Protein 1
Amino acid sequence: VTVPINRGRPRTALTIAGTDSTGGAGIVADVRTFSAFDVWPLIAVTAVTVQSTTSVSRLVPIAPNAVAEQIIAVADDIGIDAAKTGVLSSAATVHAVATALATLVDVPVVVDPVVRASTGDVLGDDDVIGALRTALLPRAALVTPNLAEAGRLCRADPPRNRRDMEECGRALLEFGVGAALVTGGHLDGDAAADVLVRVDHEPEWFATARLAALGTHGSGCVLSAAVAAGLALGDALPEAVRRAKAYVTGALERGVVLGRGPGAVRPW
Ligand code: PLP
C-alpha cells in the first residue's frame, strides 16, 4: 500500500455562525459557499435555531466559551486563512469571539451583523449591536450590513438612497472597521447596488440588474461567506467583493422554494 502524497493543506475559511434547520441560511449556506470557492470549511457554532421557512421558533445559544474554544482549536491545529461571523446571539458571545480572534491578528474577519431573520424574527438584540460596534468592528476587515442592519449599527434610520448608504458606510469606519459593504438590495429601483466604503478610497459601487428571485433567505450569509472565501484565497478586498456579488447573483438566480414560506438562495 502506498500512502498518497500530502499536497499541503487547502485554503481554509472559518464560519462563526448559527445553524438554520431549513438549510437555507447560517452555517449550511456558508459551508456550501466556501466549498464552491474550493475553500475548506471550518465551523464554530454559536447557536442552534429551530426554524421552518415561515418562522424561527427557538434560538438555543451555545455557551460563549465553547464558541471561543471551537475557534482556538482549529486555529491552533489547522490554521485559518479568513473568517466570517453570522448570528452571535448575545453580547457575551460577541465578546468571546472578539477575544478569541484578538490572538489571530493575521486572519481577515468579515462581520455579517445578523440581528433579524428574513421572517422578521429577532436573532440578536440591541446589546449585540452595541457589542459588535465596540468589540468586533475594531477587529474586522469588513462589515456587510443590509439597509436595516446599517441603520441599527449607525444609530440612524435605514439608508433610503445611495447617498445615505455612502454616509452610513463612512460612519461605520469610525468604529474602526477596515471597510463597510452596505448592501442595497432592499432599495427601490431596477438595480441591486452595494457600496464598498474604505478608508482613504472613493466609495466603490457594485451593481447588478434586479432579479425576480424566488426568495432571498440566505443571501446575506452567502455574500459574507463568499467575500471571506475570496480573502482566504488571497484576493484583495475589492476583487473579493466583486466575485462575491457575482456569486450571490447566481445563487439568487438558482433560488428555490422549499416549504410554505419564502424561498432561499442556492449556493453551488
Ligand atoms: N443565520 C441564521 C442561523 C439564520 O437563521 C438567518 C436567517 O434566518 C441568518 C443567518 C440570516 O439570513 P440572511 O442570509 O437571509 O440574512
Protein 2
Amino acid sequence: MEFDLIGRIRDRTAQLRDDVRLGIGDDAAVLAVPPDHELVMAIDTLVDGVHFPHGTAAADIGWKALAVNLSDLAAMGATPAWALLALTLPPSASAHARTAFVDGFAQGFAELALPLRLALVGGDTTRGPLAISVAVHGLVPAGQAITRGGARVGDTVLVTGTLGDAAAGLACLRDGHVGVQPSERAYLSDRLNRPTPRLAAGIALRGRASACIDVSDGLLADLGHLCAASAVGAEIEVAALPLSPAVLAVLDATAARDVAFAGGDDYELCFTVAEAEVSEVIGKLARGGCRATRIGRIVKGEGVRVRDAGGGWLDIARKGWDHFAP
Ligand code: ADP
Ligand code: MG
C-alpha cells in the first residue's frame, strides 16, 4: 500500500534533472552539487489544525508545504534544486481516502515544483496524525548566500508584495466570509493557501541586500530576528506598509495594520539595502514582476520601533505568532 502511494507521488512529481544521480527508489538519493556552489538547506513541518485549518484541500496543503520551504531558500538568495518529503497520514482514513489525499497533495506540490524544475528525490511515508515535512535543498554561488546578519545602520528596510493578506484570509474563513466579496475572498484565501515564494526576488538580491528574512511569523517578529542577528534596531513607518485592496476592503484601518504587523503566513521577503542602491533594487525586482516597498530604516540600538502617521511611536503589543504562547 505504502509503495503504491510512493509510486503515485513519484509519477506526479517526476522531473528530469541530470544532477539527480539517484532519486526516489533507493535507500537514499545521490545528487551532484555543481562546482563553486554551496548547498542551502531548510526544513519545515505543517501539522493539521496547527499550520492549516482542518479540512484544507489536499492540493493546497501540497502547494503550501513546499512553498513555505522555498520561501526560506528565497530569503537566502538560493536557487531551489531538490526536495525530500516526509508524509504522516492518519491510519483511520480508508485506503481510498488516503490515495485521494496523496493524489491531490502531489498535484498541488507538482504545480509549484515543476515550473521551478525542482526534483522530489526521496522521503518517508508513515502513519499518524496528518503532518507533512518538506526539506528543500538549493544552490548559491559560493559565498553569496544572503543572511539575516548583515544589516547596517542607515540601510533602508524594504518588503516585497503586500502584508497581512494570509491573516485576513484566515479571519474571513473563521468568520464565514460575512460581507466579503467573492473576488476578495478568492484573493485572500489564495494568499493563505497558495503563498508565492519570492525566489526570483531572492536571487536578484544576491550581492545587493545586506540582510534578508522571509516573513512567516509576522513582520515585527521577523524583522526583530533580522535586527537581533545584525545587532541593530529598525524604525518602521505605519503609513508605508504595503496593504492589498482586499485587506483594506475587509478590515478597518487598525485591524489592517495589526495583520500587516503581526499576521503570519505572508511569505514575503523583508530585506535591507544601502540607501544609494534602493531605487535600482526596486526597479530590478519590478522588472521581475515583484513589487518592493520601502517601510523604514535601520538604526543604532536594538528592537523594532513603529512610527504612526502623526509621527508618534506606536505601542504594538502582539508582535507575531508564537506556537508556545499561553
Ligand atoms: P527505507 O525503508 O529504506 O527508508 P522507504 O520504504 O521508506 O525506504 O522508501 C522507499 C523509497 O521511496 C526511498 O527512496 C524513499 O526516499 C522514497 N519515499 C518514501 N516515501 C516518500 C514520499 N512520501 N515522497 C517521496 N519519496 C518517498
Ligand atoms: Mg533503506
